[in-house]
Amino acid sequence: MSRCTRQVLLVNRGAHSSMAPNNTFVFGGNEVVHQLTKGKNSFLYVSITLVNGSRLYELYDRFSISNEGDKYRLFLAGDATGTLGDKMLNSGSSSYVLSGMYFTTYDRDNDRGGKNCAVDWRGGWWFNACYSAFLNGPWSTERWCCPWHPTVRDGTSIKETSLMIKRH
After folding, report:
1. Residue 153 belongs to what H/E stretch?
2. What span, in angstroms and rounded, lies between the C-alpha atoms of 21 and 6?
3. pTM of the shown model
4. CA terminus-to-terminus distance, the chain
5. What does the alpha-carbon distance between residue 119 and residue 108 come to, in Å, rounded to a whole number?
6. Chain-centre distance of CA 151, in angstroms?
7. In this predicted model, what pLDDT tens digit does every residue of 78-87 receive, in sequence order?
8. Omega before 150 within 30 of 0, i.e. cis
9. Residue 6: CB partners within 8 Å, gap ≥ 6?
10. Is 32 helix (H, G, I), strand (E, B) or coil?
11. Which residue segments constitute the domains of the chain, with CATH numbers given?
12. Contacts with 135 (C-beta within 8 Å, 6 or more apart), sequence order
């Protein structure tokens, strides 16, 4: 489900369907994204398509992730523009800023929350304590709360999500 088009790499894509467990597709994992972004200036484009057909997006000016030894730490900087609202870099609360956060999974609790946010919210992500933006939640009505708060309040309104990177 991954593709390269005009030097844009689809890093993560989810669609509300029955195509795969949790309907999440990841291109090669965090190590591949690290190799592609290390020492390079890259954009991050976040897109959420709603069930009503409208598409919301946020473009981050600088994006990279570190290596496994640094727990795939997320780096975002520069401007964030779009229709989603910036919830990864300037979320309005230092407890939810995602830049500088390590990647947390079920078996690696690297977040600053009191519990393992990946277990509580059912998916890996760059959690702080825990989030105001989270695109790897379960595709179900009652379990995916506030994927991009407050713009998208629950997973029932989402048809598809995408994370894409492009070098400057």
Report:
1. strand 152-154
2. 29
3. 0.81
4. 24
5. 10
6. 15
7. 999 999 999 8
8. yes
9. none
10. helix
11. 4-167 (3.90.215.10)
12. 12, 14, 46, 48, 125, 147, 148, 161, 163
